[in-house]
């Protein structure tokens, strides 16, 4: 039985239409923000988008109808798509020389992210200036951080770098992580890559449900699961759909940028050390404890005797991170 993402399709598409405009480039990468990349590309097409962005060359559709920007920078050892609709990102001077002549290219400028990009001081390097005459130049790419500096810092940095880049060669500016209403402060002909704010911007339109697969009554001290841990009290063990193969129970390291976030991380670490882990599954309005770490396709939960257990076949709510969860089914309700 499935772990299902239910989408209020009318509400979700209303959000897409109210958010998207021709200056926005929809991003469809990774797990497709939980929806799948094929679905997002189809939705982008329905919006009227003529360009989409994907994460890697492996995510480029076999025969794209629209222009497709590959966000991961091109390297000589990568097998590049031969489609004329593909726009490559180049982030090193050496790669500008190596990429086949006539390729459609976005040149990435290094920002305070310090991830990829040609430094601002290198924008007038002879290698870059010569390369501009052998490629099909599609513009400049700028990718900014989230969090610490805030969006105002990103806009200021974008405006500064944009001026330096445009002084070298005029062309569109492709940016990430700046507010759509601030594009005019950066310059003219600015395109905003948008993923999370577009596809996941109205969380009220999205509901995740897991199916109850089995229910077993247990007494305090009885052993359960692979690891044969003793249960802490009388109650029920629930076996529900959703395990590590779906992304349940898998976490990225916490940024812990604030005192509160650090305190939460410390408290969670203490619980983990004691063998207690709160699950993302909700029953009777509360998140419930894992009986043991999730299995590949299912999870075992402990429900105390004070709470009436759901029946086999019922569904329960799940609070997941959409970008790391692979659903069995996406239901457009």
What does this structure look like?
This is Alanine racemase. Pfam families: Ala_racemase_N. Residues 14-165 form the Alanine racemase N-terminal domain. This protein is of the alpha/beta class and 333 residues long. The protein has two domains: 50-201, Alanine racemase (TIM Barrel); 204-332, Lyase, Ornithine Decarboxylase, Chain A, domain 1 (Beta Barrel), CATH 2.40.37.10. The protein contains eight helices and 18 strands. The chain has an eight-stranded parallel beta sheet with strand order 2-9-8-7-6-5-4-3. Strands 10-13-16-15-14-17 form a six-stranded antiparallel barrel. It is elongated.
List the helices and strands and how they pair.
Layout (H helix, E strand, L loop, with lengths): L2 E5 L1 H11 L4 E3 L10 H11 L3 E4 L12 E4 L15 E5 L2 H6 L5 E5 L17 H6 L4 E8 L6 H19 L4 E4 L6 H4 L3 E5 L1 H4 L6 E13 L4 E2 L4 E2 L4 E7 L17 H15 L4 E6 L2 E5 L7 E7 L10 E4 L10 E4 L1
């Amino acid at each position: 039985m499935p772990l299902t993402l239910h989408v209020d399709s009318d509400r979700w598409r209303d959000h897409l239409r109210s958010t998207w405009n021709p200056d926005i480039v929809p991003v469809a990468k990774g797990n497709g923000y939980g929806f799948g990349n094929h679905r997002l590309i189809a939705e982008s097409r329905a919006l009227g988008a003529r360009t989409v962005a994907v994460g890697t060359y492996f995510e480029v559709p076999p025969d794209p109808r629209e222009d497709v920007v590959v966000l991961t920078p091109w390297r000589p050892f990568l097998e590049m798509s031969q489609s004329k609709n593909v726009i490559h990102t180049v982030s090193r001077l050496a790669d500008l020389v190596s990429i086949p002549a006539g390729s459609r290219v976005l040149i990435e400028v290094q920002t305070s992210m310090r991830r990829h990009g040609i430094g601002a001081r290198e924008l007038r390097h002879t290698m870059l200036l010569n390369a501009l005459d052998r490629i099909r130049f599609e513009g400049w790419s700028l990718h900014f951080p989230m969090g610490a500096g805030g969006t105002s810092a990103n806009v200021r940095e974008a405006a500064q770098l944009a001026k330096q880049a445009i002084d070298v060669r005029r062309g569109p500016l492709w940016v990430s992580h700046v507010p759509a209403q601030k594009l005019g402060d950066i310059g003219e002909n600015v395109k905003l890559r948008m993923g999370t704010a577009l596809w996941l911007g109205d969380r009220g339109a999205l509901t995740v449900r897991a199916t109850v697969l089995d229910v077993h009554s247990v007494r305090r001290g009885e052993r359960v699961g692979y690891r044969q841990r003793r249960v802490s009290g009388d109650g029920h063990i629930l076996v529900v759909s959703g395990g590590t193969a779906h992304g349940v129970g898998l976490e990225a390291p916490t940024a812990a940028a604030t005192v509160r976030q650090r305190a939460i991380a410390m408290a969670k670490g203490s619980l983990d050390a004691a063998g207690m882990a709160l699950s993302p599954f909700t029953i009777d309005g509360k998140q419930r404890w894992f009986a043991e770490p999730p299995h590949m396709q299912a999870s075992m939960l402990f429900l105390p005797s004070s709470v009436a257990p759901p029946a086999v076949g019922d569904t329960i709510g799940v609070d997941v991170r959409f970008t790391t969860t692979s659903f069995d089914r996406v239901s457009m309700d």
